[in-house]
Design a protein that fits this description.
Shape: globular
CATH topology of the largest domain: Alkaline Phosphatase, subunit A
CATH architecture of the largest domain: 3-Layer(aba) Sandwich
Number of helices: 23
Number of domains: 2
Keywords: Cell membrane, Manganese, Membrane, Metal-binding, Transmembrane, Transmembrane helix
Strand order of the largest sheet: 7-6-10-1-11-12-4-13
Strand content: 5-15%
Membrane topology: Multi-pass membrane protein
CATH class of the largest domain: Alpha Beta
Oligomer: single chain
Radius of gyration: 30 Å
Largest sheet: 8 strands, mixed
Number of strands: 19
Protein name: LTA synthase family protein
Pathway: Cell wall biogenesis; lipoteichoic acid biosynthesis
Organism: Paenibacillus lautus (Bacillus lautus)
Length: 661
Amino acid sequence: MLSSPSWIDIRSRVSKGLHYRYTAYLLFLILMMYKLIMLDHQLHIANMKLDRADYVIAVGSLLLISFWTLWLPARGRLASLTLLNLLWTGILYADLIYYRYFDDFITVPVLMQAGQVGSLGDSIRSLIHGVDLFFFIDWVVIVPFTAVMVFRKRRSASETYGFPGEFRRHRRKRVLGRLAAGALVFILGMVMTFVPIKKASDTWAVGLFEGNWWNITLYNVTGLIGFHGYDLYRYGRDHLIGQPKLAEEEVNQVKAWFDAKHGKASGTGALFGKYKGSNVIMIQTEAFMNVVIGQSVGGQEITPNFNRLMKDSMYFSNFYHQTGQGRTSDADFVTHSSLLPLPTGSVFTRYADREYDTLPEILKEQGYAANVFHAYDSSFWNRTTMYREMNYDRFYSKKDYEMNDVLGWSLSDKAFFAQSLDRMKGIKQPFYSFLITLTSHHPYYVPKDARKLDTGEFEGTMFGDYLQSIHYVDEAFGQFAEQMKEQGLWDNTILLIYGDHDNSIKEISDYEKFLGRDLNALDMEQIMNQVPLLIRLPDGGNAGVYPEAAGMMNVTPSILHLLGVSEAPYYWIGGHLFDDKPRLIPLRSGAFSEENVFYLPSETAGLEGGTCYDLTTRQPTDIQACRDGYDETRKQLQISDQVITYDLLKLFKAQGKGETE
């Protein structure tokens, strides 16, 4: 008769299975894959589902974070795998809780800003769901079992070997075996992780790691473990590694440039302080280009309401958007900080923790309420973090709106404007409100019942769809103006409307057909870089068309000039728009526009590699006519990059504070 196995026998068999046959390692991979899959299902991200590549990357990432445990002895391996399970389960669940509130994942900058995580407050209980227990249910067995196996009394291994030196030879063999196994797993993890990611970044996700436009998109490519790995790399690259302090001589040169600019600043002029105490409402309009202003198609005006607003507003007909890879976020940043975009990536995602002289923060110091309105995910472009740094009182995002009229990416602009103005009823005046639209976002979908234009030969094309979407947004402008009047805001509010960037439709034939004339390289460069800027003053004063070159970097200084706030204390690249001084408007590409010339660079380095255009004849002219503008453009781009990258404003202000004490 066979006797039942004793507890010692069972423990011995389990121990051998876990320690010597790598069962513990396989169990770790299975459990963590289960948790990663469960996390993805709990996120409920639209249009993102795990595919074969995602599973391969997930397994590869798990191999990369755990391969080193195979180099350890049996007990050390089991303990390390359990600790990895505890650590990464905690990270996964923290990400899930954070995502349920902020629609984003935890990043290093977030961890450095305890206030953002702490803002969850008492609502954290509502973010915990019963199903979340399945993230931790394995701990009930694994943790006590690991404790028993690790802390049990161990028999001396040398006692099992009868010949001298046999134990040492066997131990050497086991160590080499562990090293080989760990190395092979590491190589396999590298291949499984980086090959699919490289394939994605070379095809459908081109530019993702340069632009870093959305953490959710990064997650969609890299998986959660890969996302956190890249986030650590990104933070180290931008803040720790490869970012030496700027040489003192260069710091002094930047400071001298700003000091010289401050010396030229003037608070005089008929408009300085004329509208002190007025509310300010600024609308950043998606893909709103200058080329459509005043134009018609099929006998219908494309922007009739905007055209009417122009009659009692200041309209800047040569206004440049000055954005880079950050697109919409760059428009937001340049407009509010009067600095320039980075050569790669977005300031919002890369340097949200730097110090800037931004419009909402300055207006808050003047006693204004400052709020931002955007009916989309709050995490997109890292807005939640950036807007907190800009000192807005509140960010009204998608979760604050009733989604009663969805069009395109989110709430229709008509509903967005109406609900935003309703929100403003409860905000103490004077206030600053910044609104970001979405309806005219690529690919410019407008339902049939909302299509009011006869686009003729453009019907069924993306360009035709773009015209329809802009016409719809223009109708929203008309309704917005009427609601402002009904709420008593029309006569005590400075209203600004501008476009954020181009429409990404770059076929010259579309614009030639639309405008009815041939276009050259200068025409196309201006078409793709010019957006409208309209400033309506409370009394409708100073209305007219202003053809001088202007850019987003001029907006904040201009608003504050109207309110009587001098630009002298602030570190801006741009100046206000209400004087007769000639202006140079640099673009991130190295192109620039000034009073008489426009410079268009090429891939060939240096001034001579580009083309200098005479803006009167609109034909190429002597390259030397662009020499001064070329040098100043490079200087301004460099200074802006240095201010952002090396956080120079914090240094300058600390120095200024020390001098006054």
